[in-house]
Amino acid sequence: EVIRQVRRYVPHIDPQVPLPPLDWNEIARDPTTAVVALFAGREVGVAVLLHPSGVRVVDLPGLRRAEVGRLLYDLPEPLARAQEEVQRQMAQRPDQGGFAALVMHYLTLRWMIEQATSFRVGWRVALNTLISEKRKAGRLRHIRRGLEERKIPVTEREKTLFDLEDLQWLALWQHLLNDMATELWTRLWQPLRPALWELGVKRVVIIPDAALHTLPLALGLAGKADELAVSMAPSLRLYAHSLHLLQEQERREDTLMLIANPTGDLAAADVEADLLRDLFAAHGQATFTLTGDQVTGDNVIRTARVGRYWHFAGHARYEWWDPSLSALRLAQREPLPHFWIPLWMDLRATRLAVLSACETGITPARDLGQEFEGLFSAFLAAGAPAVLASLWSVEELSTALLVHRFYQYHLGDPRAGIAPRPPAEALRDAQRWLRSLSAEALKEDVLRRNPGRDSPIWQQLLSLESGIEYPYANPYFWAGFVLIGT
């Protein structure tokens, strides 16, 4: 409609991304799948269920626009007053905006620590704070290593608030995610679930409105009876486009194009690569690998059409101040920016792009656009029907285990008696598996692979000797991965 109106004044304008017209018969052919469009209006929140049997509307009072705003950006009164004061002072010093953001991160983190497992902070505020904390802690550790190498003693005075112990940091994540799971179940899934049960739905494709796309929506179903498989789509039209891409693809062998540990500092990425090569070999399929200094921008672009599965295991970063600069990190930390990917990479022959890295699924929260986008959307625009991406800074070993299990469930693994299943179901089942994985079973599995005693993976295993029976039960380890597309 917008394009039609603009053509009244500029007759020859073309849409930037020409897409086929919507064909409802193509979209709603599977009775076990429902497309659910969420709308957060000022007066009402609703879910529109699109299904072969017809259209249904479910009221969601807990997802009115004001409620969503509180869910994302709520600040307790002391923090709200502090923010007003910081903004008042910074109004006189507009050049100090970055410092103001750092001050608010510091104050928010201190509040979360002081309140321990009873803090209540908006999801987006808490997410930004915990991701920033992890980045700054990494920088502090790097500085300390440099000081120690130069024989300069490091005292406790160099330890700052942005340097939490891992268990303390994970406790904050667990509280945040458990609280969010309860909110999402109450506000979204509990009122929606009866209609989905009645329709016999097993898979749900969520098309979120406004800032709802920033929430880990599937988390609200975790651990519930008859847990549904959930994926996301930026819009109904782009979901239809993903279906069309998948249906039009020529059937190819399930080969893997693997980009592994380009920066050379992720031992678990090497483990992940070994696991995936072994799995694809068991299927009689080839894996084509770029690693280390081979992972240049030219090589990544040149090999984009090689595998039916395109997999990146390395570093990535979401740039909060300018999301268009978000990038994967290649050899020598060369960036592969968001905006280059659809321009130079051709992924139309790819079934799935897996971004096994940090922050690849984060999106701008306060954007007026109707479709959400992030680093993952560049891979959709390049032609991949589906992308597996992460909502926060993920942990190395748990990510390697989760992703390997995801492929096992998706492709099937006759050695383990696993039948193949669609990507959304494979992700749900891999997340279930990881959160119920015992430390004993994990150690037995890794020891069977016989890592060297000086291997970082061996050292990480030894760190599990803390008496935690299920080391990855914390949602931080498994809830961050989402499937976008089909």
Secondary-structure-derived class? alpha/beta
The description of the largest β-sheet is: 6 strands, mixed
Query: In one word, what is the shape?
Result: globular
Radius of gyration: 23 Å
Residues in helices, as a percent range: 40-55%
Summed up, the helix count is 17
Mean pLDDT: 85
Our estimate of the beta-strand percent is 5-15%
Tally of strands: 14
Low-confidence stretches: none
User: CA-to-CA gap between the ends?
Assistant: 26 Å
Strand order of the largest sheet: 7-6-8-12-13-14
Task: Write a concise synopsis of the structure shown.
The protein has helices at residues 2-7, 24-27, 65-73, 77-91, 97-115, 123-149, 166-199, 236-248, 267-282, 297-302, 341-344, 375-381, 396-411, 423-435, 439-448, 456-462, 475-478; strands at 33-40, 45-51, 54-59, 203-207, 229-232, 256-260, 287-291, 309-313, 316-317, 327-329, 335-337, 352-356, 386-390, 481-485. The protein has 486 residues and is of the alpha/beta class.
